[in-house]
Batch of 3 targets.
Target 1
Amino acid sequence: MFRTFFARKGAAIASVLLAGVTALGALPAGAAPFDGNRTNFADERFATVWSRTDSESVRGGRTWYWGPNAWFDYAEFYRQGENGLRTVQYFDKARMELNNPADRSGASRGVTNGLLVKELVSGRVQLGNDPYDTDQRPAAEVPVAGDPRSANPDAPSYSSFAGVATLDNGYRDPQRLGQRVAATIDRGGNLSARPDLALPETEIVQFNSVTGHNIPSVFWTFLGQKGRVLDGRIINAPVVDWLFAMGLPITDAYWTRARVGGNEVDVLMQLFERRVLTYVPSNPAGYKVEMGNVGQHYFQWRYAHLGTPWNSPEPQLPLLYASNVDTGGKHWELYRYGIGALSADRISFHDQETVAFSWRRSWDPGQLALLTDSRRSNAQFRQIYEYGPVALYGDNVWNAEIRRLSYTDGTQAPPNGPNPGYLVNNTANEYNASYSPDGTKIVFVSDRTGKPELFIATSSFGNPTQLTVSGCVNESPTWSPNGRRIYWASTCDGDYDIYRADVAYDYDSQYGVNARLVNVTNLTNNTTDDRFPRVSPDGRHIAYTSYSAGNADLALINETGDPIGPFFLSPANEEAPTWSADGTMLAYASDATGSYQIYTVGLSLRGPGPSQITHNAGQNRWPLWAQ
């Protein structure tokens, strides 16, 4: 029936698809973590700063100052930023930031370069302009130079330098002009000396009186070198403004032994506020002095759960759905579609319903996590559980620890942690939990205050903050790819409509989040129900279920609410769309065959038409693909 209707309505559907898919195929100039386009620049000013030193037109055989390309951008908390957020973009060597989008001053046109090294050594993530406004974490155990820790077990980490670094602690080194560097440091932060490494090029030629640290000739020459740069046109000029690029030195230079490319070598390292310089005498000319991979190191420290996007392919997530086929129709369990030779694989085994709602995505397949709604602990209340880390291997293995995040029925002790998410009323439902794209926050629905409202919490679920106080039903929150907005369905205008709002942060740390919704907009604003919104990977379109024709149909709008039209109309019900990772397909549930089954459809005139992918005697609903 579905295929017949699709063919019969071909002209109408073709016009809808053509209007919508032409736009769907055009990715934005910026990027987002999981839109498949993350090497694009998030802002043209980032591209200008990068191109000045690292574009192929000027770099030649010169070492990288930022790296070959960007690989992650996001809206991170910054107290003075727009809605408490600033746009950042990570490169191998550093992170670019736009604290104030309206600021286009100076040679960098408002782009700043984060104090990443200072944060890695101190463990203090700066949350705003005030240097004492910080989120305290353990100092980074990532090796400063060389291969990752698994292949570089003895190399000093950033934490190794805490005892010899200037970190608002008054530490200073004595002036050593004219001396050569023979001092060494090990992983434990212990200092010693190797006179054989006191090479002529390590002679101290500068002493910074502000922080009290000595700079050897080999690094000072690098900082002051001239070369080809792109500044509107190709010119010969100082390659970098070293204070902008590096910040002030926070340590003296030290030798160490580290594994680089699997080989153990002598490395001279010096830490600055923003960057690290390394000198490896055995390296080829032009690459003896290099910027350390501070951007990679900081990302590993701050987002350990996200893996290594600079050298990993896009995450491929399985399509999940709920089915009652094995429970005699009594409740939902989770199934995974199409792994290896399997057409379906049951992955949850409880005596009450369990339905998947969102992934915590990662470039490390062993760090995937899944948020579910479940009644497995109490049949009266829906609660939020995390399956993770999730690892998929072979044809039929699902390895995951199950962690209960919400506690509202009083049957268990609250979770451990500094701010447990325990609720005292003991009679609430918690569900529709959605991970932010960076995996650090969760938006969810709770009826703890009466009607179902939206709340936000850290990934540890500490101290949830209420976002909506509408007194109507709110459901199905979903994030924009850059973490700045959420979309959801609400009955505040009498029927379900799709809403959009910007999230404004007053505080965001590992211990808690304080946020509110601003610029709340009703995107569909009609007299029929619109439900189950999901945002496309590029953030430009929202797929949802429209009931405007009297039954459930798939529909698309853009991010401002302009309709792309019903994706297709049929006598059957099509519900709860979910996007593929590349944004080219939707999965959904349809009762076209009499019972609900899972279908997929391509969002292109040349793409695959509707295809039924589950065929069983049960009801199959609530698919989850790459949200």
Target 2
Amino acid sequence: MKSLVVGIVLAVSGSAADRWIEYRIGPFHVISNAGDKAAREKLNQIEQFRYALGTELGKIGMGKDGLVTVWPIDLVLFASQREYLAHAPGKPFIEGGSATLSAWTGDTALPREWLRALARLLIDENAGRMPDAIETALCDLFSTIKVNNTKVSLGAPLPEGELQKDRMRAWAKMQMLATLPDYSGKLRVYLNNMQQNGDEAVAVRNAFDLTPAKIEVQLDAYIRAGKFEAAPVGGEPLDPNRDFPEKVLDMAVVQGLFAELAAGGKNFPPDSARGLVEKDTRAALELAIKANPRWGEPHFRLAALETNSIGKIKDLKEAAALDPRNASYWQGLAEAQAAANLYDDAAKSWSQAEHAAADEAERARIHIAKMALDAARADFTEAEKKRRAEEAAHDLERVKRAAAAEVHAAEAAANARLNAGKGGYQKPVEWWDDPSGEKVEGKLTRVDCLNGPLRLTIQKDGGAAVKVAVRDLKKLTVNGANEARFGCGVAKPARKIRLVYEAKPDAKLGTLGDVLVVEFP
């Protein structure tokens, strides 16, 4: 009978171990076989963590719903260390096909490195870029969080030697600002200013009405005193036993999670959002956008496939808006805008890329690329100025031609009226039809007064210059005037002239012939 009881107990225990339950709130999913209490306590801890960090980052209240994540965060909570070690991902968080994945045990507190990684993830996906030292200090501060139901405290001392000297000083500064009453109520103002422009002097003045130097003096005294004590922070009003919906999971779902933990973020189910993006086709990328509308990467990859500049810019804007801390998205947008000659927009995108840079090396690289844009912008501006000037000249010439056409039309109409009733208008016979000879029309550009004859240089309309001789002005026929008069030298300005000449080349004079008839129209 005793062995039967033991067998029943073992069977129940084995059944319970295989019973996986999912608990949810916000972006967090705890999938656990570690029992109801352990799962609810872990979920409460990380939800209170999210709430407290969101408060300090200014993401709680005034219509703001708190910190969000691009992906759901699935924490697989194992009943034992042995089970956990069989599926341990090797680092706090890894990429899954449709979620960010993590794993731990139900009977052990979440380690500080895990909490630091959670803080980093939430900052990356919700806050504007701040200097790395400040973001790291904020992660170190929140690694000390303690949660007991709705009671939350922050800033407990770190073990000696856990952090290097510079990082320890940055943590001490953040701990001082978060826990001392003179500063704690204004920490969110300080962090908001740092997110906006990264200017420490502005942030310290606006938040604490001090200078950075004064803060550093007070920090030195605080570190020498060495009294780092945790301080209470406002917790989220929730009941872990009531506010976390639960659902029993099918083992096929759990086995799928195990498979993704084993993959270590290196391959994904083909129909998951990340699996679809790996296919890198337009159809797959559009499905990935539907699968996770908060993810910028599918939009960025669609832009690479787009040949239309308007469509490319649209996709890149979507990517940058969804992931504003991704400098490569902003740089891609800036380059696409510059290629479309949208230089004002490109300059703004380059500035966003600079602000989003993760470190000084990336920021310097982006700044150099931005300077190249400035040079291209100057060339484009000069070309546009020249183009507009040419267009204005063409427009002016068009107006002149139109006005001349109107004048000619008016003259023709007037002539028609004058000849009405006189047998109709007769087109006049061109003057050069008689006498016979070679005809030239152009501009008189020069008159050479030689010993007796004159040599005229005529620049033909649309042709080369022609030189002809006037042997005797008295024998020259002049149409429309009694006589022709010529001034020696270069004609200023050149006069319009029509003439007929007899082709008699004169090698000595360098002329083609002798002028018979001349007219100045």
Target 3
Amino acid sequence: MKKIYLSIIILLTIIISSRYIYLAYYKHDYYYEKYLNVTHKIVYGLNAPRGRILDRNGKVLVDNIGINTIVFHKLDNTNIQDVAKFLNNLLPDIPTATLDEQKKYYLSHNETDNLLTKQEVDLYNHRKISSKEVEEIKLSRLDKIINYTKEQQQEIHLYYLLNKGYIYDSKIISSDVSDEICAEINTSNISGLTCEYTTKRIYLYDTLNDILGRTGQITPENKEYYLSQGYSLNDEVGLSYLEKEYDEYLRGEKAKYLVNKDNSLTLIANSKPGNDLYLSIDIDLQLKINDIIKKNLDKAQDLKNTEYYNTSYVLVSDPNTGEILASTGLTKVKDSYHDVTTNILTSSFTMGSVIKGASHTVGYQNNLIDIGKKINDSCVKLYQVPTKCSYKRLGYIDDITALKTSSNYYQFMTAIKLTGQKYQNNMTLNVNQEHFNIYRDTFSSFGLGSSTGIDLENESLGIKGKTIAPDLLLNLSIGQYDTFTPLQLLNYINTIATSGKRYALHYLKEVKNNNQTIYQYQPQLLNQVNNSNFQRIKEGFKEVLYTGTGRGYTDTKYKPAGKTGTSEVVYNKDTITINQTYAMFAPYDKPQYSIVVISPNISYNNDRDNYIAPINRYISKEVSKLVFEG
């Protein structure tokens, strides 16, 4: 029995000792902060430096630089009105107060009960309306009363900034001020007013900046979200794209202070900078691709039928992971170039025959294609629909040579079979929503018309045509109806390269803190396309670039496979323009890279001349060489 008691005592001693060590050492900081929060008021300092954003090779894309920032922290003996007047005389280019700021200032500095009717006063006295409702009534009647000068409006705006937030908060009044103004602030001896050295975001390249995103103050629209996440109103946050998507990693830890009885502060923990974001982007590759696009935008000016062409997009990725190595969109306006890379996410285009790998899959999945069987390429004539053909008579073709030669007729036959009917000249083709859905569901499994999983907000899913008609089903099968984004086209060609494995596209590669990896992106498989004939699609795409319609787009020494596309677009009521597209991967037997090139409005329908400038081919050939040879 004594041994049992002794064992129990030893066990309890171990448990108590372990618990003490856990609380005293491992959780000390956590519980100490809990204690301080109960017994004292803890506040946080200004924003700590955000983490940097770097490319895959460690080249810095986004960094921080030091700036002078005017900061105000209200103490008991501070007269805010005097501080506002001082700053109004010191700072240049002070914004004027908004009408709402002027009204609230007037309300707090003047007797305004005369703005209420006797009935409204009685309602308030009898608690029929609240003080907030009374304030709203008064504010609504101040429009014709307030009449502040510009100087007064500037002072009111400063007064608003000085009072913004909680009384114990540090308020940022003005950033990036001169050393002279900073020195005058710090020698003014105004209680609570200081000039401190903070940081601001800088972007080191003139490309990708919109995709990288921007930072700023919390806005009224997202105020509730950020406050619920533990942010303060004066925090700098990511407002768009990668800065916003990965804000939790990039934001630093602000310094912690105890608030003393006179509202002064005592430092209890220093600030810590945020983590560094490493992207999959290769900035050197990106810049060289930009140069290729610029050169060809210039070249196009000397070629025929290019009056409506001014933009091209290029994407490069690893199809096995979804990593994006380069993504750019450039447009030329007069003699200047503008980065429009976000269009790869938000703008969609009719892509043309480049999507026939997905159309072929509809045929394979629904047993509509006789593998290896040859048919004679021809034209289709439906009742009350103009004749529809391939771009020329292509002779006898099977499922592989149909891709090689980009036969429209072959896709038309597949679409007609999908309806359960057999083609006859001038036939009435009965189509319904289900037929369109079958195509779109298959397209979606490749990423065409669905989310690519990209780690950015505001991704467009393209536009699905709403009209159900026989000729439009045929158009859908050859990429001439629905629209897709450049990112979706990239997702599509990657899915073919991996024989049906569709991985999410992404920019993030890893997150580091002082060179220690704290997060590494793992490829995300979105779905597997059910198609046992991917090898035939790949063979067809290989033939496209070796001896088919895509000859010259990528040198065959890289063992490429891919597809070109051409589509017509209504540019305006008088003009039909032509988009050209290209999607490829290589080597075809073990893909390492994929490339997408899109040049909208490269030409236009012209009764005098049907020449299409080979700009998309020029760009594709140069980018291919750059990617595979460096």
